[in-house]
């Protein structure tokens, strides 16, 4: 799949989905029981649940992937997310998620098993999210307006070579098997070369 805003193509992973793209808006839907998480309190080798993803490999060097994420979140855990992966058991996601009853920015980093951290609550049904690669590290940010950014976390993932070849893109999830599914819309998509000079000053 090709998006005019990105200098790389996207490929579908996870459960079958039929993503849509029109007028700069990417639409991705997860069915009931579709999630991407490995519970840290259980054996790491328990297979992770899976969810629809669209991923591609950006050019070498530092970058920023940005999108406004809008979703009608109806069941706890429903989310639209930016996603990155460096290996089968090494991946991370930055979500607009219903957690547990409010729209919240949530981040997960998985190294065999997943962590799970809530950040700020979101007023309304949308938020801007950003993934940055800076050297061999990655940073997550969120924003109300796409201009001033709130720092969420900074982390390393995989080896230096794996981080340099990371895949990034979009994901949606609906963990509850009794829910109706979750559709997320990603627009205002942007890809920028380079990283902010200061990850914590709002730029």
UniProtKB/TrEMBL annotation:
It comes from the Bacteria. Coiled coil: none annotated. Gene3D superfamilies: 2.60.120.200. This is DUF1349 domain-containing protein. It comes from Streptomyces fildesensis. The lineage of its organism: Bacteria, Bacillati, Actinomycetota, Actinomycetes, Kitasatosporales.
């Amino acid at each position: 799949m090709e998006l005019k805003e990105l200098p790389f193509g996207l490929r579908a992973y996870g459960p079958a989905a039929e993503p849509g793209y029109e007028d700069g808006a990417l639409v991705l839907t997860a069915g009931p029981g579709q999630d991407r998480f490995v519970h840290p309190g259980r054996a790491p080798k328990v297979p992770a649940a899976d969810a629809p993803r669209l991923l591609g490999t950006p050019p070498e060097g530092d970058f920023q992937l940005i999108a406004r994420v809008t979703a009608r979140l109806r069941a706890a855990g429903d989310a639209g997310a930016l996603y990155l992966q460096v290996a089968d058991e090494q991946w991370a996601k930055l979500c607009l998620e219903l957690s547990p009853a409010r729209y919240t920015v949530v981040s997960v980093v998985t190294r065999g098993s997943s962590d799970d951290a809530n950040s700020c609550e979101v007023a309304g049904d949308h938020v801007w999210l950003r993934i940055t690669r800076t050297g061999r590290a990655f940073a997550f940010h969120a924003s109300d307006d796409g201009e001033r950014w709130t720092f969420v976390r900074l982390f390393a993932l995989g080896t230096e070579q794996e981080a340099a070849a990371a895949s990034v893109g979009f994901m949606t999830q609906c963990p509850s098997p009794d829910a109706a599914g979750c559709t997320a819309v990603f627009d205002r998509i942007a890809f920028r070369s380079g990283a902010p000079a200061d990850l914590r000053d709002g730029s």
